[in-house]
Amino acid sequence: GDSVAIVIRRDAGVSGSVTVILRTVGGGESWISEINVQPSPNNFTIGSVLANRLAAAAATANADYAQLDSAVTFADGETSKTVQLSIIKDAIPELEETVLVYISLPASSPGAQMPRLADGTAKDGFKTSYALVTIVRNGIYNGIISVAPDSRETVVSEDASPNPVVRIQLQRSGSLSADVTVSWQAKVSLTSTPADDAA
Predict the structure, then answer these.
(1) Where does the Calx-beta domain start and stop, copy by copy (predicted)?
(2) For residue 197, which of 20, 39, 144, 177 sits 20 to 30 Å off, Cα-Cα?
Protein backbone atom coordinates (compact mmCIF):
# COMPACT_ATOMS: atom_id res chain seq x y z
CA GLY A 1 0.00 0.00 0.00
CA ASP A 2 0.88 3.68 0.02
CA SER A 3 1.52 6.04 2.90
CA VAL A 4 0.64 9.65 3.68
CA ALA A 5 3.03 11.99 5.47
CA ILE A 6 1.36 13.77 8.38
CA VAL A 7 3.39 16.82 9.43
CA ILE A 8 2.95 18.20 12.95
CA ARG A 9 4.21 21.68 13.73
CA ARG A 10 5.12 23.37 16.99
CA ASP A 11 4.64 27.14 17.00
CA ALA A 12 5.23 29.98 19.46
CA GLY A 13 7.39 28.73 22.33
CA VAL A 14 9.76 25.92 21.42
CA SER A 15 11.70 25.60 24.67
CA GLY A 16 12.11 22.21 26.26
CA SER A 17 10.99 18.77 25.17
CA VAL A 18 7.28 17.98 24.74
CA THR A 19 5.43 14.83 23.70
CA VAL A 20 2.04 14.50 22.01
CA ILE A 21 0.06 11.50 20.77
CA LEU A 22 -0.94 11.21 17.10
CA ARG A 23 -3.91 8.93 16.50
CA THR A 24 -6.38 7.93 13.83
CA VAL A 25 -10.03 7.97 14.86
CA GLY A 26 -13.49 7.35 13.46
CA GLY A 27 -12.73 4.03 11.80
CA GLY A 28 -13.55 1.86 14.79
CA GLU A 29 -10.76 2.92 17.19
CA SER A 30 -11.67 2.41 20.84
CA TRP A 31 -10.39 5.81 21.99
CA ILE A 32 -13.20 7.70 20.28
CA SER A 33 -14.88 7.53 23.68
CA GLU A 34 -12.26 9.98 24.97
CA ILE A 35 -13.40 12.67 22.49
CA ASN A 36 -16.32 15.05 23.01
CA VAL A 37 -18.21 14.38 19.78
CA GLN A 38 -20.62 17.28 19.26
CA PRO A 39 -22.04 18.70 16.01
CA SER A 40 -21.00 22.25 15.21
CA PRO A 41 -21.48 24.73 12.35
CA ASN A 42 -17.70 24.72 11.98
CA ASN A 43 -15.03 22.04 11.95
CA PHE A 44 -12.58 23.58 14.40
CA THR A 45 -12.11 20.47 16.55
CA ILE A 46 -11.85 16.73 15.99
CA GLY A 47 -15.09 16.29 17.95
CA SER A 48 -17.06 18.51 15.60
CA VAL A 49 -15.54 16.86 12.51
CA LEU A 50 -16.52 13.42 13.77
CA ALA A 51 -20.06 14.61 14.48
CA ASN A 52 -20.47 16.36 11.13
CA ARG A 53 -18.95 13.64 8.95
CA LEU A 54 -21.19 11.20 7.09
CA ALA A 55 -20.77 7.71 8.52
CA ALA A 56 -20.72 6.22 5.01
CA ALA A 57 -17.61 8.24 4.19
CA ALA A 58 -15.54 6.78 7.05
CA ALA A 59 -12.65 4.47 6.19
CA THR A 60 -12.14 1.43 8.45
CA ALA A 61 -9.12 1.02 10.70
CA ASN A 62 -6.83 -1.90 9.80
CA ALA A 63 -8.87 -2.58 6.65
CA ASP A 64 -8.45 0.69 4.73
CA TYR A 65 -5.56 2.13 6.77
CA ALA A 66 -3.21 1.02 9.54
CA GLN A 67 -4.47 2.28 12.89
CA LEU A 68 -2.15 4.97 14.22
CA ASP A 69 -1.32 5.52 17.89
CA SER A 70 2.13 7.09 18.08
CA ALA A 71 3.94 9.17 20.67
CA VAL A 72 5.70 12.09 18.97
CA THR A 73 8.41 13.94 20.89
CA PHE A 74 9.67 17.41 19.97
CA ALA A 75 13.17 18.06 21.27
CA ASP A 76 14.14 21.47 22.58
CA GLY A 77 13.91 23.95 19.68
CA GLU A 78 12.39 21.41 17.27
CA THR A 79 9.41 22.75 15.30
CA SER A 80 8.33 19.98 12.93
CA LYS A 81 7.84 16.20 13.02
CA THR A 82 6.55 13.84 10.31
CA VAL A 83 4.60 10.63 10.88
CA GLN A 84 3.59 8.19 8.13
CA LEU A 85 0.00 6.97 7.85
CA SER A 86 -0.12 3.65 5.97
CA ILE A 87 -2.97 3.08 3.49
CA ILE A 88 -3.96 -0.55 2.92
CA LYS A 89 -4.53 -1.54 -0.70
CA ASP A 90 -7.17 -4.15 -1.47
CA ALA A 91 -9.33 -5.41 -4.33
CA ILE A 92 -12.66 -4.38 -2.77
CA PRO A 93 -14.72 -1.87 -4.80
CA GLU A 94 -14.94 1.28 -2.68
CA LEU A 95 -16.10 4.85 -3.03
CA GLU A 96 -14.19 7.83 -1.63
CA GLU A 97 -13.44 7.46 2.09
CA THR A 98 -11.85 9.64 4.74
CA VAL A 99 -9.40 9.05 7.57
CA LEU A 100 -9.16 11.43 10.53
CA VAL A 101 -5.86 11.92 12.33
CA TYR A 102 -5.69 14.05 15.48
CA ILE A 103 -3.27 15.17 18.16
CA SER A 104 -3.96 14.48 21.82
CA LEU A 105 -2.00 15.00 24.99
CA PRO A 106 -0.49 12.10 26.95
CA ALA A 107 -1.34 11.54 30.58
CA SER A 108 0.48 14.25 32.52
CA SER A 109 3.16 13.54 35.09
CA PRO A 110 4.44 15.87 37.83
CA GLY A 111 6.67 18.58 36.37
CA ALA A 112 6.00 17.60 32.75
CA GLN A 113 5.68 20.35 30.16
CA MET A 114 2.27 20.12 28.50
CA PRO A 115 1.74 22.04 25.23
CA ARG A 116 -1.57 23.61 24.26
CA LEU A 117 -3.27 22.15 21.22
CA ALA A 118 -4.52 24.44 18.44
CA ASP A 119 -8.31 24.75 18.59
CA GLY A 120 -9.03 26.06 15.10
CA THR A 121 -10.03 29.57 16.21
CA ALA A 122 -8.61 32.97 15.32
CA LYS A 123 -6.35 33.05 18.36
CA ASP A 124 -4.38 30.17 16.82
CA GLY A 125 -4.50 31.58 13.30
CA PHE A 126 -7.22 29.00 12.51
CA LYS A 127 -4.71 26.16 12.87
CA THR A 128 -6.26 22.82 13.88
CA SER A 129 -5.02 19.81 15.79
CA TYR A 130 -6.42 17.30 13.31
CA ALA A 131 -5.98 16.34 9.66
CA LEU A 132 -8.42 14.79 7.21
CA VAL A 133 -7.03 12.32 4.66
CA THR A 134 -9.19 11.36 1.68
CA ILE A 135 -8.69 7.95 0.08
CA VAL A 136 -9.96 8.33 -3.48
CA ARG A 137 -12.28 5.74 -4.94
CA ASN A 138 -10.46 2.83 -6.55
CA GLY A 139 -10.57 1.70 -10.15
CA ILE A 140 -13.35 -0.83 -9.55
CA TYR A 141 -15.55 1.36 -7.35
CA ASN A 142 -18.49 0.96 -9.77
CA GLY A 143 -18.06 -2.74 -10.37
CA ILE A 144 -16.58 -5.20 -12.84
CA ILE A 145 -18.39 -5.79 -16.14
CA SER A 146 -18.18 -9.20 -17.80
CA VAL A 147 -20.10 -11.45 -20.19
CA ALA A 148 -22.40 -13.80 -18.31
CA PRO A 149 -21.20 -17.44 -18.34
CA ASP A 150 -24.17 -18.68 -20.44
CA SER A 151 -23.46 -16.01 -23.09
CA ARG A 152 -19.76 -16.65 -23.61
CA GLU A 153 -20.38 -19.14 -26.41
CA THR A 154 -23.57 -18.92 -28.45
CA VAL A 155 -24.70 -20.84 -31.54
CA VAL A 156 -27.13 -19.27 -34.02
CA SER A 157 -28.32 -20.33 -37.50
CA GLU A 158 -28.19 -17.75 -40.25
CA ASP A 159 -31.22 -19.51 -41.77
CA ALA A 160 -33.37 -18.50 -38.82
CA SER A 161 -36.44 -16.50 -39.85
CA PRO A 162 -37.06 -13.66 -40.20
CA ASN A 163 -33.71 -12.34 -38.89
CA PRO A 164 -31.41 -14.22 -36.52
CA VAL A 165 -30.79 -12.36 -33.28
CA VAL A 166 -28.18 -13.19 -30.67
CA ARG A 167 -28.71 -11.86 -27.18
CA ILE A 168 -25.55 -11.37 -25.14
CA GLN A 169 -26.08 -10.95 -21.42
CA LEU A 170 -23.62 -8.79 -19.48
CA GLN A 171 -23.19 -8.90 -15.74
CA ARG A 172 -21.91 -6.41 -13.19
CA SER A 173 -20.31 -7.63 -9.99
CA GLY A 174 -18.47 -6.22 -7.00
CA SER A 175 -20.26 -2.90 -6.72
CA LEU A 176 -23.38 -1.22 -8.09
CA SER A 177 -22.35 2.39 -7.40
CA ALA A 178 -23.15 4.92 -10.13
CA ASP A 179 -24.39 4.36 -13.69
CA VAL A 180 -22.10 2.53 -16.09
CA THR A 181 -22.10 2.55 -19.90
CA VAL A 182 -20.06 0.08 -21.95
CA SER A 183 -19.35 -0.15 -25.68
CA TRP A 184 -19.40 -3.35 -27.71
CA GLN A 185 -18.19 -4.51 -31.11
CA ALA A 186 -18.98 -7.55 -33.27
CA LYS A 187 -15.87 -9.24 -34.70
CA VAL A 188 -15.33 -12.02 -37.20
CA SER A 189 -12.73 -13.51 -34.88
CA LEU A 190 -10.50 -12.47 -31.99
CA THR A 191 -7.67 -11.74 -34.42
CA SER A 192 -9.68 -10.14 -37.26
CA THR A 193 -8.83 -6.64 -38.46
CA PRO A 194 -11.35 -3.76 -38.72
CA ALA A 195 -11.40 -4.37 -42.49
CA ASP A 196 -12.27 -8.06 -41.96
CA ASP A 197 -15.08 -7.13 -39.57
CA ALA A 198 -16.56 -4.59 -42.01
CA ALA A 199 -16.58 -7.02 -44.98
Answers:
(1) 58-109
(2) 144
Instruction: Assess whether 91 and 170 both reside in one domain.
Output: no
Q: Is the bond leading into 106 cis (omega within 30 degrees of zero)?
A: no
Dihedral of alpha carbons 102, 108, 113, 116, sign: positive
Residues 163 and 185 in one domain: yes
Q: For residues 55-73, b (16+ Cβ closer than 10 Å) or e, as one string? A: eeebbebeebbebbeeebe
Cross-strand partners of 54: none
Note if the pTM is more than 0.70.
no
